[in-house]
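FIELD: query
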Amino acid sequence: MERTLVGIPIGSARRLRLLLVPLLCLGLAWMGKARANSDDPPGQEGSDATNPDVTGVPSRGELDSVVGDDQGDNGEGRDRLRWGPLYPSVTVLSSGAKIGPKLQLWLPDLGESPLDFHAAGIYSVRRYQYYTAQFGLLPERRNRPPSFATSTSSVYPLAQFEKLSGVENHFVLYGSYRYRDYTEEDFYGVGSDAPKEGHAYFGMRDHFLEAVTGYHFSPRFAITLSAGLLETSLGPGADGSLPQLSAQFDSLTAPGLDDPPDEVILTTGAIADLRDDRRSPHEGSLLMVGLARFEDRNGGPFEFTRAAGDMRFYVPLFTHKHVVAARVLVSVDWPDAGGQVPFYLQSPLGGSRLLRGYPTFRFRDDALAAFSAEYRFEPMPKLELAVFYDAGEVAERLSALDLSDLKTAWGGGIRVKSKNRMLLRIDVARSRETTRYLVKSSAAF
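FIELD: result
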C-alpha cells in the first residue's frame, strides 16, 4: 500500500512541488494588480512615467542593495535583490549540496488583511531540492521575507528558534509544508568510536506538515509551540564513489534504516537574544532552549523526548575590535522503554560550525555536548581575523557525557564582513583525523 501524507500519496510529491510554480505566477500578478490600484499618484493612475514598477524592471535601489551597505532603518531593509514579491538568490542548501539558486515569494498582508503567504524553492547543482510554503500570521522582519532553516546538520529544533530573533510582530499563527530531497547524505555510524572508514552515502526524502504558534514579547524574546507530522523515506545515495548505507549497515547499527517511522512531533521552546547585533555580534549573549516529543504514528519503537539548549556569549576586550566569543550546545534524547532514535534524527557533531576539524555528520548519538571558543580581532571595519578551539562528545545517554572522550579541533580564519553581516568566512581547522578548509558565507556562531 502506498504511504500517504494526510491523504496525499507520497508518490505525488512532484505534483505538489509543481504547485509552487503557479503560486509564484499568481503572487506576481497579485502584486502587480495591488500596485496598479494603490501605488499610482493621485490624478495619474496607470501612468508608466510615474510608476517605474510597471515595466517590471527592478529599481536602481533594489539592484544597488546586492553590493551596497545601505540596509534600511534596522540594517535589514535593502540587503537582498528583490523583483516585486520575488527574492532570487543563491545559497548552499545543506552539507554536500553545493551551491544552487533560491527563489522566495513573499506576500505580506494579503488583501489588506493581517495574513501572509510565503513560498520558496531551492535546487542545487547536486540535485538537492527544498520546497516550502507557509500561510497565516507569519514571523516578520521589516522589508524582508521570513527566514527558514534547511540544513540536516543542525540540532532540531534550535535552528528553527534562531530564526525568531529580530521578529517584529508579537503573535504568530500559521501552517507550514516542507518537502526535501537530499541525494547525498553522509553516515559514519553511531557513537564516538565510529570509524571514518565506515563512511557511506544515502538519499533522504521527507515531508513535514506543521502548525506553529508563538508570542514575541519583543524582537529579542519569544516563545513558540508547534505540532507536526514528519514522513521520511530513505534510498541509495546519488554518489557512487562511496558505499551505499544499506551495504554497510543494518537496522541494528543504523536504527530506522529498514522502516523509517512517521513521526508526530510536538515542540516548544524559547529564545532570549541579548546581543548588540544579531548578525555581527560584539557583546551580549544568546540563549535558546527547546523540548520536543517524537511519537511514532504507527505505534512502533521510535518514540523519544529531546531537550536541547544553546548558549552563546560575546565579551569585548576593552574595545569591539577584540572579542572573545564562546558557545555551549547540549542535546539529549530519552527513548521510551525499548525504544530507539532513528539514526537520521540523532543530533550530529562535526561540520563548519560544530567541531570544525571533522566532516559534517562525523559523529551521531542520543546525547551530544559541544563547546567552541574564538578570539576575534578586527584590524579594520570589514575584516576579521580569528583563532578558535572546538571540543565535543557524543554518547548513548546523558550520564555517559562525562567529557572523557572529547574530540577536539583548532584553527584560524579570515572573515570579510559588510556593515553588519558576514559575507565570507574562510577557516582552516585541524583535528587528529584531518585538516579541513572551510569557505562559508555565514558566521560559525
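FIELD: remark
The first helix runs from residue 13 to 18.
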